[in-house]
Amino acid sequence: MQNFLQDIFYRPLRDLRISVIDRCNFRCTYCMPDKEDSRQYSFLKPGEWLSFEEIIRLTKLFVDCGVTKIRLTGGEPLLRPNLVELVGKLREIPGIKDLALTTNGFLLTQYARALKEAGLDRITVSLDALDARLFRQMNGGKGNLQKNLEGIAVCEGLDFDTIKINVVLQKGVNDGQVLDMVSYFKGKKAVLRFIEYMDVGNCNHWERRYVVPSREVVDLISARFPLRPLAAKEFGEVAARYEFVDGGGEVGFISSVTRPFCGTCTRGRISADGKLYTCLFASEGVDLRAPLRAGANEAELSALIKNVWQNRTDRYSELRTKIRSNPEPAHKVEMFQIGG
Ligand code: SF4
Question: How many CA atoms within 13 Å lie on the side-chain side of 311?
């Protein structure tokens, strides 16, 4: 029977992001830049990843706690062997209304059809530029723009509920790409979402001056392609949605820096090694893998999950300025460990 679990601020646990692997074949500058400090990180070994059986067991418990939306993330989730099999198993769990995946797109042409046939509802692809040189610059020289565009085109030919294109804007880097990207995707099934550059993890050397406020992007686009705001589809929706006045579809803006949305945050995250994090900017996670492997039963695991969420007070983005004013801010989990 589905209960609705609420945290200290009465935010329900409704979305679960499951990182199935911390490894990635890209080195995006805003997540895992190919620099000294991120090179220090030692990736999990396969035996340390939650097995598919463990992921299924935990997911069922989260669904019993009110979760209806599952998003598979990484690192790069398509690097996890047999991921299509996991999608199929998750699809069988009653109560999951929305099964989505976020990918860097490199392996999309290879897996898109199988993912759809296994039951995936929605797909989100990262694509930070349409300029091939800039695209490669932003992912550490690992990506292939044409391959990504082909992968997106394949997805557009398949019956996904939605296809989202995530663009992390960095001032002086790819903010000059906005109108080209709108021109390319306007009228297509894929929906662009411009994301404010965030201080995730510890190794992207974030500075506020490199953030392009969404307000400016809305104004820039609207000057060429008039926009009007749309109402949120549901409580906890991350992106502010707009539609093109001329009927050319939608575009979204995720503004964690200039318009924090912690007040309606319904997202829990599980890392590939089975830790439960209650915020993208958390420092600590609660280990679910150890009790799972030590023989804890469903009631014990469920009690652990409930206790974590009911005591949740996270609202990092609302407190960012204050938290960052601390000369020794806490070490944060890396985005590639828990997904965006
Ligand atoms: S900063 Fe944390 S609490 Fe706020 S919206 Fe993001 S994940 Fe949720």
Answer: 9
Whole-number Å distance, alpha carbon 264 to ligand 1 midpoint, is 9
Name which residue sits closest to atom 4 of ligand 1, judged by CA: 262
CA distances (Å), 100 to each of 96, 110, 204, in order?
A: 11, 17, 26
Q: For residue 262, how far is its CA from the centre of ligand 1 (angstroms)? A: 5
- The string of DSSP letters for 136-170 reads HHHTTT---HHHHHHHHHHHHTTT-SEEEEEEEEB
pLDDT per residue over 179-197, tens digit each? 999 999 999 999 999 999 9
Mean pLDDT confidence for 291-297? 98
Distance 21 CA to ligand 1 centre (A): 21
Residue 338 corresponds to which tokens in the numbers above?
Answer: 């828990």
- Which pLDDT score is estimated for 246? 97
> How many alpha carbons lie under 13 Å from residue 301 in its C-beta half-sphere?
25
- Name the CA dihedral angle for 64, 66, 69, 70, rounded to a multiple of 10 degrees: -40
- List the residue whose alpha carbon is closest to atom 3 of ligand 1: 315
Alpha carbon distance 24, 27 (integer Å): 7
Any idea which residue has 């809305």 for tokens?
A: 218
Protein residue with its CA nearest to atom 5 in ligand 1: 262
Contacts of 308 (CB under 8 A, 6+ apart): 276, 278, 286
3-class SS at 63? helix
Geometric angle at alpha carbon 288, from 287 and 294, rounded to 5°: 105
Mean pLDDT in the chain? 96
Asked if 151 and 125 touch (Cβ cutoff 8 Å), the reply is yes
Cα of 180 from ligand 1 centre, angstroms = 30
**Taking 50 as the threshold, does the pLDDT of residue 1 lie above it?**
no
Pairing of strands 240-244, 227-229: antiparallel
The domains found in the chain, sorted by start residue, are 15-163+266-338 (3.20.20.70)
pLDDT over 60 at 2, yes or no = no
CA distances from 183 to 177, 214, 218, 244 (A): 10, 18, 14, 12
Ligand 1 — pocket residues by CB below 6 A? 256, 261-262, 265, 267, 279-281, 314-317
